[in-house]
């Protein structure tokens, strides 16, 4: 570390400041991820790898500071790699249930604010579901460093496409696209100045934004007379609150995580093609069906109900994700848990996604986060609560490389991650594809989701229902929800 770096401060971006301010005991703003290995990962080898690749990002030697007038980054003069990399052993059989409990505990614990806000835990005795033994790497990184897509790619930058480390550079060529201009340039081209308008709202008319947050009725008036950007903001502010279910309510300080057995990605793609929708549509429809079944088993009447999930939308080209920082917006996606017909449920999810793609909702959310970061901290909590009431879950889908990866020469068998929930949202849904398989995970507040395994176990069953429909129908004709209902009634 140079003398110039020692003790110096660097201003944190407004969006990253907003995420730092969101930290609450009931919702830790950490992105938690796990990498499961086919063999043993040596902790000392891993530390050397971190020194070479992870700490090449100067930001990860810096800790976050926050004051009345904003937040900043400053280099940690006492940085200790041994504090940031811990070893652990699972009790008992060291199986999936024990690993889920261990990761749940870590997802509930805060990171130390006096140090850079990240930590790795090397678990050395995991028993995989197929009976094999191997290590697991659990990563915890605060959201203020970067968004989920960026941090997943940072973690994957530690890996190689072959057991030999010299193959490291190959991943960028086989997975990421070429660098095509700055993030801002790529954003402004399709938005035609829309992003600039959002920042105008944030910087020059904060009083109007604060008025809209304090009194959503004002937003209804603006919706009739504002620009496209301010109309989108007004629409978001005037959305109705999500319906009351067991998933909504006061949160505790304990999180619980679970993940499902992976699905074959090729089957998901073929199903989406057969039913005229995207892979993302299929997976989110399966998640909606799993939530429906979970709530019905709790005795809740969900028929006719639609809940919303906030879905992060990447606002930069994939090849820029490793440049850190938070560069994403949010959209509200309808999850029709009250629809009993799985094909109609898929149609409704796909229709909602198509509608959102033609709107500016994500870019507005990005601008609003910047406005919250530059505005008074006292206004951020009521603003978060206002938006939290409009959704029940956070749903994230990150595309990963479709080839086996190696870390310190050890093959990565499976990947999973969970993003934090904001405000009073108590459920997170995560989808990640890797090496030809799709991984689905849930993180839930213990008061709201006491058994996340009960949701993830239904995910595969919902996919099988959708898969059965085209297998039993005539592809020469359109497959209708009525056909689907008849097929399921006969064969499911």
UniProtKB/TrEMBL annotation:
Annotated Gene3D superfamilies: Chloramphenicol acetyltransferase-like domain
Domain O-acyltransferase WSD1 C-terminal: 325-466
Keywords in alphabetical order: Acyltransferase, Glycerol metabolism, Lipid biosynthesis, Lipid metabolism, Transferase
Catalytic activity: an acyl-CoA + a 1,2-diacyl-sn-glycerol = a triacyl-sn-glycerol + CoA
Pathway as given in its UniProt record: Lipid metabolism; Glycerolipid metabolism; triacylglycerol biosynthesis
Domain of life: Bacteria
EC number assigned by the record: 2.3.1.20
GO-annotated molecular function: acyltransferase activity
UniProt entry tagged with the keyword Lipid metabolism: yes
Domain O-acyltransferase WSD1-like N-terminal: 12-282
PANTHER family: O-ACYLTRANSFERASE (WSD1-LIKE) FAMILY PROTEIN (PTHR31650), WAX ESTER SYNTHASE_DIACYLGLYCEROL ACYLTRANSFERASE 4-RELATED (PTHR31650:SF1)
Family recorded in the similarity comment: Belongs to the long-chain O-acyltransferase family.
Listed name of the protein: diacylglycerol O-acyltransferase
């Amino acid at each position: 570390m140079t003398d110039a770096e020692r003790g110096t401060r660097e201003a944190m971006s407004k969006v990253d400041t907003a995420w730092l301010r969101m930290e609450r005991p009931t919702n830790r703003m950490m992105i938690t991820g796990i990498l499961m290995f086919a063999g043993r990962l040596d902790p000392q080898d891993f530390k050397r790898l971190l020194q070479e690749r992870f700490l090449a990002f100067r930001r990860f030697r810096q800790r976050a500071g926050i004051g009345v007038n904003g937040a900043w980054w400053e280099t940690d003069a006492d940085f200790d790699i041994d504090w940031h990399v811990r070893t652990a052993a699972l009790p008992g059989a060291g199986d999936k249930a024990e690993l889920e409990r261990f990761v749940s505990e870590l997802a509930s614990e805060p990171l130390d604010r006096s140090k850079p806000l990240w930590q790795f835990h090397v678990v050395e005795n995991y028993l995989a579901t197929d009976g094999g033994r191997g290590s697991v790497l659990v990563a915890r990184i605060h959201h203020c460093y970067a968004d989920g897509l960026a941090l997943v790619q940072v973690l994957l930058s530690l890996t190689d496409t072959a057991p030999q480390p010299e193959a490291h550079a190959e991943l960028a060529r086989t997975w990421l696209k070429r660098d095509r201009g700055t993030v801002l340039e790529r954003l402004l081209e399709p938005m035609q100045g829309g992003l600039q308008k959002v920042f105008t709202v944030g910087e020059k008319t904060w009083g109007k934004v604060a008025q809209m947050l304090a009194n959503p009725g004002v937003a209804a008036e603006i919706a009739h007379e504002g620009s496209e950007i301010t109309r989108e903001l007004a629409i978001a502010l005037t959305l109705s609150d999500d319906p009351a279910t067991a998933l909504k309510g006061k949160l505790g300080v304990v999180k619980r995580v679970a993940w499902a057995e992976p699905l074959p990605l090729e089957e998901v793609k073929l199903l989406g093609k057969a039913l005229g929708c995207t892979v993302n549509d299929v997976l989110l429809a399966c998640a909606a069906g799993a939530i429906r079944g979970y709530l019905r088993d709790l005795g809740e009447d969900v028929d006719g109900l639609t809940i919303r999930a906030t879905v992060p939308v990447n606002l930069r080209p994939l090849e820029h994700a490793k440049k850190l920082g938070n560069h994403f917006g949010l959209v509200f996606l309808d999850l029709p848990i009250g629809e009993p017909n799985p094909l109609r449920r898929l149609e409704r999810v796909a229709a909602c996604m198509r509608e959102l793609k033609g709107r500016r909702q994500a870019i507005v959310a990005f601008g609003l986060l910047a406005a919250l970061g530059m505005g008074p901290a006292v206004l951020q909590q009521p603003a978060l609560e206002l938006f939290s009431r409009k959704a029940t879950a956070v749903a994230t889908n990150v595309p990963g490389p479709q080839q086996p990866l190696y870390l310190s020469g050890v093959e990565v068998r499976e990947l999973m991650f969970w993003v934090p929930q904001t405000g009073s949202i108590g459920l997170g849904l995560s989808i990640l594809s890797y090496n030809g398989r799709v991984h689905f995970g849930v993180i839930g507040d213990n008061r709201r989701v006491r058994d996340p395994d009960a949701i993830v176990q239904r995910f595969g069953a919902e996919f099988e229902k959708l898969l059965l429909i085209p297998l039993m129908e005539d592809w020469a004709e359109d497959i209708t929800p009525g056909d689907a209902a008849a097929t399921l009634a006969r064969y499911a």
